[in-house]
Amino acid sequence: MRATSGTSLVLCGLLVLLVLLQAPRTLGLTPQTRGQLCRPRPTDLVFVVDSSRSVRPVEFEKVKVFLSQVIESLEVGPNATRVGLVNYASTVKQEFPLRAHGSKAALLQAVRHIQPLSTGTMTGLAIQFAITKVFSDAQGRRARSPDIRKVALVVTDGRPQDSVRDVSERARASGIELFAIGVGRVDKATLRQIASAPQDEHVDYVESYSVFKKLSKKFQEAFCMVSDLCATGDHDCEQMCLSIPGSYTCACREGFTLNADGKTCNATDLVFLIDGSKSVRPENFELVKKFISQIVDTLDVSDKAAQVGLVQYSSSVHQEFPLGRFHTKKDIKAAVRNMSYMEKGTMTGAALKYLIDKSFTLSSGARPGAQKVGIVFTDGRSQDYINDAARRAKDLGFKMFAVGVGNAVEDELREIASDPVAEHYFYTADFKTINHIGRKLQKKICVEEDPCACESIVKFQTEVEGLLHALTRKLEAVSKRLAILENGVV
Question: What is the DSSP string of 300-322?
Fold first, then answer.
């Protein structure tokens, strides 16, 4: 069987896949290792605040705390964000216009001095006042700057005594973005009539003023051009947070895998199931041992990261070493080198059953919660039934890779491999398929800055083979010349 080069290429691809298995998972997104903190977009922002008699003084103080928290997050200034505030009940009072305060400190002081009006609820009148008076050039609106947002944030806790639909439509038509916040007994239909689209981003409701401040974070982010939630700590990643514009993704350190929740990480328990049947041949078995060691070199081996176990099978199953026996790469690779070739039959089903019943058990060193990864290498048809054990391994959540060479049965490889099957099984027939398999593996699993450098390895192998052929031809020529000289001497 001339599967030596094909075997090396398949295991090269598997090496890459294992590295990718442990690499930071980003769900198809391109992460930024470090972004910027919130940089507020310049905005003309007007608060329209309900202080009708239904809003008790202690509750109005909570509204003022909310307003102050939003202002704290802004970059305030004549060329940055300008803030105005309208206080309303049965009447409307402009507490301060957009042009009034050029600093954050002055705005916060002005908010502290606001007092409730404590009469009716004329929400429509207040919005109309904001359109015609507050959002005017005379009061500080920057009409000649189309890139500056015009935003009105309406806070109310009751049913208005006038209509809000038409005046809100006029406000939106004039380019004002309307947010509506309702508290307690507010009429939710009124909130929807006020707010801009999409309404799920522009309508908010809280049951009481006691939880009102929880909305401040949302509106702090709403006025940001960039929000690096990783830098601010506003994420729930267990190990690593990777920033992307306006959001983040979670990742894990080397030797750990990201769980299905996209947030938490598991260590990896990796067990090799190696076919030691007589069809593999001693020279190929040595090559398999070499590539096992290369895979081990990519791992962060420790009792808290990756653990490695090794099982060889032929007509019987033999555990070379269990998970957790060796705590360094050096010791694992030494044990791999010392593995003796069994050289008998091919009982793949028995090996899979051993993996389930023995290798991934607590008594054999497996850790609760760790990601279980099995790599099955075979070069022939199994002499026993594999389907039940292969199915059970996957049902238990094991991540199974199948590598086949030569007379391996592809249907069996697919049965062993986890979903998606195309990403979890590899096969090569013989040396003639090396180029095809190389290209196939590069397309499937080789990436930029590929740790296995598959393309380079294929190129290197080709160059070495060419040099060996050339050297062989030269030796043959030298031998012929020597023979001629010997004949001449005689």
Answer: -BSTTSEEEEEEEESSSEEEEE-
DSSP, residue by residue, 362-407: GGGT--TTPEEEEEEEESS--SS--HHHHHHHHHTT-EEEEEEETT
| Residue 244, SS3 per DSSP | strand
Task: Using CB atoms within 10 Å of the CB of residue 93, give its burial: 0 to 12 exposed, 13 to 18 middle, 19+ buried.
Answer: middle
Would you mind telling me the total number of residues written for the chain in this entry? 490
- Beta-bridge partner residues of 269: 307, 372
CA 129/CA 378 separation, integer angstroms: 79
Q: Which amino acid is at 443?
A: K
Within 13 Å, how many C-alpha atoms sit on residue 366's CB side? 21
pTM to 2 decimal places: 0.47
DSSP state of 102: -
Q: Show the CA angle centred on residue 160, arms to residues 155 and 165, nearest 5°.
A: 90
- Coil vs helix vs strand at 10: helix
Peptide bond into 245 cis (omega under 30): no
Query: Which amino acid, 139?
Result: Q
Beta partners for 242? 249
What is the C-alpha separation between 474 and 477, in angstroms, rounded? 5
User: Which pairs with CB-CB distance under 8 Å and at least 24 residues apart come from 255-261?
Assistant: 255/22, 255/299, 255/300, 255/301, 255/302, 255/304, 255/305, 255/306, 256/22, 256/305, 256/371, 257/21, 257/22, 257/25, 257/371, 258/24, 258/25
Per-residue pLDDT of the chain (490 residues; tens, 9 = 90+): 444 445 555 545 555 455 444 444 433 333 333 334 456 678 999 999 999 999 999 999 999 999 998 898 888 998 889 999 999 999 999 999 999 999 999 999 999 999 999 999 999 999 999 999 999 999 999 876 777 889 999 999 989 999 999 999 999 999 999 999 999 888 999 999 999 999 988 999 988 887 777 787 777 767 665 556 777 677 788 888 887 765 788 988 766 778 778 888 878 899 999 999 998 888 888 878 877 887 788 777 888 788 999 999 999 999 999 999 999 999 999 999 999 999 889 999 999 999 999 999 999 999 987 889 898 988 889 999 999 999 999 999 998 988 888 888 899 999 999 998 988 888 876 533 423 433 443 343 333 333 344 444 444 445 545 555 565 665 666 566 666 666 665 4
Question: Which residue's entry shows tokens 């939003």?
Answer: 70
Vertex 323 angle, CA 317 and 324, to 5°: 145
In this structure, what are the phi and psi dihedrals at residue 298, rounded to the nearest 5 degrees?
Answer: -85, -10
Residue 407 and residue 394: Cα distance in Å, rounded? 24
Between the alpha carbon of residue 63 and those of residues 53, 95, 122, 189, the distances in Å are 14, 15, 18, 22
